[in-house]
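WARN no homologs supplied; continuing
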Amino acid sequence: MGLAITQVDSFTDTPFRGNPAAICLLPEPQSDSWMQLVAREMNLSETAFLLRRSDGSFDLRWFTPAVEVDLCGHATLASAHVLWEEAHLPPDQPARFHTRSGLLEAVKKNPWIQMDFPANPPKQIDRFPALEAALGVTARYTGQSRFDFLLELASEDEVRSVQPDFAALRAAPARGVIVTSRSSQPEYDFVSRFFAPGAGIDEDPVTGSAHCCLAPFWSQRLGRDELTGFQASTRGGYVRTKCLGDRVLLCGQAVTVLRSELV
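OK structure emitted
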């Protein structure tokens, strides 16, 4: 019998929207090179590998088709969804993950999944003309978090209209670039898009880890701890956020779309 791989669309309740992730529950440890090859074969923004510990928690690692990453929200959401849906955990038991970014926890709040992640607020930096040129924008604010650059634009229309020069963006000295603005729609508070061509992902459909930066950024500006963001990629997806000091709660939904077997 082969190794099961489940594909889940995260931050959506609708198949073929949100951000797809492949989830592989390992019966035993595998090499980094093998996991990277599987992620390249799956060719999704992230493939997650889970290995159960004796205490019922899991080691969790995330790979793009090109590199291993330190933090990934949508594949963590998808991992928790698979553990509960396939009865690896009872629905009332939190999913606990040991990762490169410390211990992460997810709890089931039907129909939502709530994840507890480290906050990653940006620090303002000087304008970055080469980055603005690569995006074709003029930024109101330029910041940098642990992983990414963040550029605030004047309007939602500007965010939706960005057409990056991906070759130029690959030179940016960060994992990726977030563009964001206040929302013009009443159902969400801010919009964003995320580009990471240097990590093998030109545009990520919905990026949970980017909201660890976006949530504190917009919480400070809007004066509220609880906000809803919409990531305006072609697939699109919603992320509910709540700032709690140096942590951010990220809430999303997930739907399984494909079960396969690696032979």
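Residues 3-115+251-262 form a domain with the Diaminopimelate Epimerase; Chain A, domain 1 fold (CATH 3.10.310.10).
OK
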